[in-house]
Amino acid sequence: MDKRWTVKKYQPIQEQELQAALRIHPLLCRLLVQRGIRKYEDARHFFRPSLDDLHDPWIMKDMDIAISRIEEAFFRREKILVYGDYDVDGTTAVATVYGFLSRLYDNIEFYIPHRYREGYGISMQGIEYARDNDFSLIIALDCGIKSVEYIAYARSLGIDFIICDHHLPDAILPNAVAILNPKQADCPYPYKELSGCGIGFKLISALAQKKGLPMTEVYRHLDLVATSIAADIVPMTGENRVLAFYGLKQVNDDPSPGIKALIQLSALKEKLTTSNLVFVIAPRVNAAGRMDDARKAVNLFLEKDYQKAYAFAEMLHGDNLERKGIDMSITQEAVHIIQNDVTQQSRKSTVLYQPHWHKGVVGIVASRLIDKYFYRPTIILTQSNDKVAGSARSVSGFNVYEAIHQCKELLENYGGHFYAAGMTLKPENVEAFREKFETVVAATIDPEMLIPEIVIDTEIALSDITPAFYNIMRQFEPLGPENLRPVFLAKRVMDTGFSKVVKEEHLKLSVKQQNSNAFSGIAFFMADKFELVNSKRPFDIVFTVEENEWNGNISLQLKVIDIRASDAKAAS
Fold it and tell me: Pairing between strand 160-164 and 135-141?
């Protein structure tokens, strides 16, 4: 797929002011300003995160009520149920809060809803389990803010809820004893982007303070908090950056037995980054809920014995291998359907339905189709009991939830956000939904949105890429949304004569600019660009910078994202 290149706007005055304060390379100041860092003090907090920078948990609306209710439950020997969603954020949140509370109190259990039998969030089965087993307090993590009816029902049974959720609240809130959610309009908590596990972390921080416990008892859960932040794609700013920084330090220096077992099974040797958490650890945790029962992910995180933790990790690893095989098979089947249907190929959207497809991977398949094959809003549907259920994924800039909302008369249920959503519908409505969704997308999508976009931080001269430059840039970690790995554009580079195709599909590059040394680079799946590279004409490259270690020698290498002739259409 051809891609459009978009270079971020520069703010020269702010860049110059920051450069005068920091006295580092001007392009590093440009990258910092783009990330909202404009003053020396901002840069100090960015480069030197401190746990002292975390906000007081008691500022959060209802925190005092939540802690009082938990202490009342302790005093009265009430049964407490820690309840959380089946994804990474939910399972890490449950393991964090249950793990902490169970060291203080023994009349406590945890509950994870089954993805297929109960669905997302608070379920009727969960409330009935609490009723039948005499639980009178449920602490809901990463869910609950929209469960108005279920929580009202629980209240009628004498079951109280404390909600710890980070999803956007509706106008009507559940009748819970306490709601911890910084996104509430009247919550004064200054940082609004915590993960669900992050809010659970704030709850146990306040409880530790109330009990006079050392904060080390809370900080021991930071590896799980960092995993939730990375996996849930929340902004890597403010408190999230501090929590992720120290959580990653724990993951690398002193991980819990469960995290250590996952690292061992994934055969990771290098120091872990947020990218490893997202692409190596998180899929194995998510696979438990996708393929079977997410309770084993919580048990993995709670297990103190390494050998037992390793056994749980092997189960998750096996689930993930099964998940990969299934989602690759479904992806290939989906590609085949589109390639053999002329009507499908000309559409602005993809909506595919096969009743035998596995419900646990339809979202992954939708993402894979967009990333590698057909760049357009995509919905993958499958049979779920007597209904059809599916997941939607979008392309940059297009609100897929709003498009689905416009088809609501054909749906039984739906929910989601800008880039991802889920829905259920009757089998007889699938074809009508496919046509209506296509009509809505075709009428509202900007044609440019159907061309994959590469967002570039700045143009750079290869001569500016030095070890000193890279050493400062490396301190941008932990990386994530709003602090992504810097992407560079170098114009009019030339092949040194040593570039070549490797393994038939990748390019091993050796390039230079006027007045620069030669740089090696790797361009995965770009063997088709070799003719351009080898043409003795200048070309432009978009890339990130990374370290490459070979035979004990460490050098800087370009990881090339795209290549085009220097006279091609300029980046916008």
Answer: parallel
**Residue among 519, 511, 456, 442 nearest 484 (CA):** 456
Domain boundary among 315, 349, 371: 315
Which of the listed residues 422, 450, 478 is the one where a domain comes to its end?
A: 450
Tokens of 113: 């809803």
> Maximum Cα–Cα distance for the chain, whole Å?
80
Structure confidence by residue, pLDDT tens digits, 264-313: 998 888 889 999 898 888 999 988 888 878 999 999 999 999 999 999 99
Is residue 260 in some structural domain? yes
Residue 84 has pLDDT above 60, yes or no: yes
Helix 196-211 and helix 63-76: axis angle, to 10°?
Answer: 60
State residue 569's pLDDT score. Answer: 61
Q: Work out the percent of the chain whose per-residue pLDDT is above 70.
A: 99
CATH number at 425 reads 3.10.310.30
Q: Flag whether 33 is in a domain.
A: no
For residues 112 and 244, state if they share a domain. Answer: yes
Render pLDDT for 5-64 as a digit per residue (tens, 0 to 9): 999 999 999 999 999 999 999 999 999 999 999 999 999 999 999 999 999 999 999 999
Give the residue numbers spanning the domain of 494: 4-8+454-565
Length reported for the chain:
572
Cα 471 to chain centroid distance, Å, stands at 26
Q: Number of helices (H) and strands (E) in the chain: give both, helices first.
A: 22, 19
Q: How far apart (Å, rounded) are the C-alpha atoms in residues 14 and 29? A: 9
Distance, in Å, from the CA atom of 268 to the CA atom of 78, rounded to the nearest integer, reads: 43
Cα angle 427, 428, 430 (rounded to 5 degrees) comes to 70
Residue 568 is predicted with a pLDDT of: 64
Q: In whole angstroms, give the CA distance from residue 97 to residue 206.
A: 12
CB-based contacts of 190, cutoff 8 Å, min separation 6: 55, 59
Backbone φ, ψ for residue 14 (5° rounding): -65, -35
Residues 345 and 304 in one domain: no
CB 301 within 8 Å of CB 220 = no
DSSP line for 253-288: HS--HHHHHHHHHTT--SPP-HHHIIIIIHHHHHHH
What is the C-alpha radius of gyration for the chain, rounded to an integer number of angstroms? 25
> Looking at the whole model, is its pTM more than 0.85?
yes
The answer to whether residue 502 is domain-embedded is yes
Distance of CA 97 to the CA centre of its chain: 21
> Is 516 within the bounds of a domain?
yes
Q: How far apart are CA 377 and CA 381, in angstroms?
A: 14
- Strand (E) or helix (H) holding 48: none
Residue 354 CA to residue 430 CA, distance in Å, equals: 11
CATH of the domain at 187: 3.90.1640.30
Provide the number of structural domains found in the chain: 3
Residue pair 337/310 in contact by the 8 Å Cβ criterion = no
Q: Do residues 374 and 350 make contact, with C-beta atoms less than 8 angstroms apart? A: yes
CA proximity to 70, closest of 211, 230, 236: 211
